[in-house]
Design goal:
With 298 residues, the protein is mainly α. It contains 14 helices and two strands. Bound molecules: iron/sulfur cluster (SF4) (2 copies).
């Protein structure tokens, strides 16, 4: 049981194990920092998207900045698995709700922004998300006419990814509630970034192998961790389905269908909810009529 907690988040949070306060101090400190980074990224991205300046090139620069600063320099900050793992650990250890106040506040704010504007966090602020997005560009069609670039690309339906992800979330909570164990750290590729700090730590090396598997899969399958396993992604998908301020078609749309063909998550249709829209901008780039824009009046 103890071993389970010593990998991944446990490595960092063990610093706070002798916590004299009635709430999770580690969750509070990392949460404030995470929200600060998120606020900066959010304001900057929403400004660029609204001004129609978020081209593939601009987006790639932001992906690189998030990956280098958040992933490599800050070693996986912001990390959305942290608050969820803290919750699972608190459930497993039968801590009271008060202890979880900081992480629940962070999650409420993050899910609240998904409810407003969809998954800009996943699109641009998450180092693991941007890592997968950058790798997806190697083999994923950027241009509908360039069919060869797409020959090793696997398509999966929204239904399948949703089923796998929610089953995984169910198992996580089932094991925490009934057996008192938190297995999320075993499925935590974020901790793979920590190998840069402690290259000889075996647990971190295992997490690094997980991160590498996610990276290699991203070349062939769009954002595999986000769509199949990330518990934060599951909640964010749910909230974003009700978001009104997302990409929508204008009256200039001629229904040519190009955006629907290029969308890697099959959510570009006018009637689709945008739960799985990662603001990748492939639809914007391909549209010959410039008929897709961020609707901020929803
Ligand atoms: S789904 Fe999870 S891993 Fe993917 S970008 Fe969102 S928070 Fe990051
Ligand atoms: S292509 Fe799909 S996922 Fe990408 S921005 Fe457009 S609707 Fe969203």
């Amino acid at each position: 049981m103890k071993n389970l907690k010593q990998i991944g988040f446990g490595v960092i949070s063990s610093v706070f194990q002798e916590n004299p306060l009635p709430f999770d101090t580690y969750g509070a400190i990392s949460g404030v920092f995470m929200l600060f980074l998120w606020l900066i990224t959010f304001l900057f991205c929403i400004m660029l998207i609204d001004a129609k300046l978020m081209s593939q090139k601009a987006a790639t620069v932001i992906y690189l900045i998030t990956f280098i600063i958040g992933g490599l320099l800050l070693v996986a900050i912001p990390n959305t698995l942290l608050p969820i793992s803290e919750i699972l650990m608190a459930i497993a250890d039968r801590k009271d709700l008060w202890y979880l106040l900081p992480v629940l506040t962070v999650l409420t704010i993050l899910f609240g922004t998904s409810l407003l504007v969809g998954r800009i966090f996943c699109g641009y602020a998450c180092p693991l998300g941007t890592f997968q997005e950058l790798l997806s560009k190697i083999n994923f069609k950027q241009d509908i006419k360039n069919q060869k670039a797409n020959k090793f690309h696997f398509e999966v339906s929204k239904q399948l990814t949703g089923k796998v992800r929610w089953t995984f979330v169910g198992i996580l909570f089932f094991l925490a509630i009934l057996l008192g164990i938190n297995i999320l750290p075993y499925f935590d590729p974020f901790s793979g970034f920590l190998v840069l700090r402690s290259p000889i730590d075996l647990n971190l090396f295992i997490a690094f192998v997980g991160l590498s598997i996610v990276g290699i899969s991203s070349i062939f399958l769009y954002r595999p961790y986000c769509r199949f396993l990330c518990p934060f992604g599951a909640g964010s998908d749910l909230c974003s389905r009700y978001a009104k301020n997302t990409y929508q078609r204008t009256e200039d749309c001629t229904e040519c269908g190009l955006c629907e063909k290029i969308c890697p998550t099959h959510v570009a249709a006018a009637e689709s909810n945008k739960g799985e829209c990662y603001y990748c901008n492939r639809c914007i780039e391909i549209c010959p009529e410039d008929a897709i824009k961020l609707n901020l009046e929803g």
